[in-house]
Design goal:
Blueprint lengths: L1 H24 L14 E4 L6 E3 L3 E8 L7 E7 L12 E3 L2 E3 L5 E8 L9 E8 L3 H4 L10 E7 L3 E7 L10 E8 L18 E5 L6 E11 L4 E9 L5 E9 L13 E9 L2 E6 L3
Parallel strand pairs: 2-9
Antiparallel strand pairs: 1-3, 3-7, 4-6, 4-8, 5-7, 8-9, 10-12, 10-14, 11-13, 13-16, 14-15, 16-17
């Protein structure tokens, strides 16, 4: 019995030694540490909480470590109740940072519009949002988040007239902006369509001076048409005027370069003065 006991004790000791040596030989893999992932940095010269129509916010996006996989940077609207509409008021395109590269450019473009309307707000975030990709970036990455007021530095106009009675031919009137010397059309016939109302705009980038909004009675079947003329400068104020365009009074209306002058526009910087000429 004593001999068997000695053998049992020896065998147990040998088993413990082998087990310990086996554990020492195994390599333990460190857990994934997100801190070692690359960090994205977003650089722009844009500052503030407002932007003008026609402006572009440009971002240079860099990462501090290259990846073997691509990253897709895009824009996410963070408040769908904000008045500005993605695609209507501003546009953008997703950009892909290819493997083994570390820089891309991302642009948000704010569109010019001819439609008079109140100042609008846009709320959005720029970053990597695809689940399979965003976890490739380290937690120190801080996405730009914007809450912007979209300002207007153009003069906008809407011209709407009484439609023809049912069964009658449709009246077609066009509007256009011409410089005082009547040597240039300033809006490229933006208001020359078959629509009612017509919209057009004088861009804030044109020189200071006097311009005229003109009406061309392109194809008219009615003797007279009541109209509503809406104008808006660079601020919040929207001005509404009404009048009657009387075909029998055409000779009394002031001739312009294209049609009849219906409104005088004086531009000084981003300030506009409007004077309605046909009532």
């Amino acid at each position: 019995m004593k001999i068997n006991l000695k053998y049992n004790i020896f065998g147990l000791a040998l088993l413990i030694i082998v087990s310990v040596m086996g554990c020492k030989e195994k390599k333990v893999t460190d857990p994934i540490d997100p801190a070692v992932h690359p960090v994205a940095t977003f650089t722009t010269d844009f500052t503030g909480n407002s932007v003008f129509e026609g402006d572009t916010i440009k971002y240079t996006i860099t990462i501090d470590k290259m990846l073997t996989r691509s990253l897709t940077f895009s824009l996410k609207v963070t408040d769908t109740t904000a008045t500005a509409v993605d695609g209507e008021d501003f546009t953008w395109e997703p950009v892909v940072m290819a493997p083994y590269t570390n820089e891309v450019t991302f642009n948000v473009i704010f569109k010019n519009t001819s439609v008079p309307r109140a100042v609008r707000t846009a709320k959005f975030e720029i970053g990597v949002f695809q689940l399979a990709e965003k976890n490739l970036l380290g937690p120190a990455t801080k996405n730009p988040v914007h809450n912007l007021t979209i300002m207007n530095n153009n003069a906008r106009f809407s011209f709407e007239w009484t439609p023809a009675a049912e069964g009658e031919d449709v009246n077609d009137m066009d509007i256009v902006i011409v410089n005082e010397a009547m040597t240039a059309v300033m809006d490229g016939w933006a208001g020359a369509t078959s629509n009612n109302p017509e919209y057009t705009a004088l861009l804030g980038s044109v020189d200071d001076g006097t311009y005229y909004l003109e009406v061309d009675p392109y194809d008219i079947y009615s003797a007279a048409m009541n109209f509503t003329l809406i104008s808006q400068g660079s601020g919040l104020s929207i001005n509404t005027g009404t009048g009657t365009f009387d075909m029998s009074q055409l000779d009394t209306y002031e001739d312009g370069g294209v049609g009849k002058r219906i409104m005088k526009i004086v531009k000084v910087g981003n300030e506009y003065t409007f004077t309605q000429l046909i009532n």
